Amino acid sequence: MQIPEDPTNSDIRDVLIDLRDVIDEVRSEVRGEIEDVRRDIKGLSDKVNGLGDKVDKQDYKFDAYQKGIDGMVRMSITIIIATATVAVLPSLSPAITAIINAVTNGTQ
To answer: How close are the terminal C-alpha atoms of the chain, in Å?
Structure first.
């Protein structure tokens, strides 16, 4: 609406009423947009919470996997040590016996 060059109170009143109507329309549109944003934020929040649960489950799986790996490494080390003992001691025993005999014979 155009305001005349020399407005009357009635003209100003009409323009203010039109302005109020426009402001009410904008306000209701903004409220609708705010509600949409709130719903979107709520949806994102729910998804983030769901991801937190998935991460916790993955941490549990990783912990279980890590414990399994640790057990396998310990078992492998035990097997290696046992194998080395079986392989080395038979050939080392005669050498130790010879050293002991040499030391005891040399001191007499």
So the answer is: 130
Report the share of the chain in percent with pLDDT over 90. Answer: 30
Residue 19 CB burial class (10 angstroms; 0-12, 13-18, ≥19): exposed
Annotate 62-84 with b (16+ C-beta within 10 A) or e (fewer): eeeeeeeeeeeeeeeeeeeeeee
Q: What pLDDT does residue 7 have? A: 84
pTM above 0.90, yes or no: no
CA angle, 89 as apex, 85 and 91 as ends, to 5°?
135
Residue 15: which residues within 8 A CB-CB, separation 6 or more? Answer: 1, 3, 7
Measure the CA angle with vertex 71, ends 65 and 73; round to 5°: 105
Encoding tokens for residue 58? 């993955």
What is the rounded CA–CA span in Å between residue 104 and residue 108?
7
Q: Phi/psi class of residue 87: alpha, beta or left (left: φ > 0; alpha: ψ in -120 to 50)? A: alpha
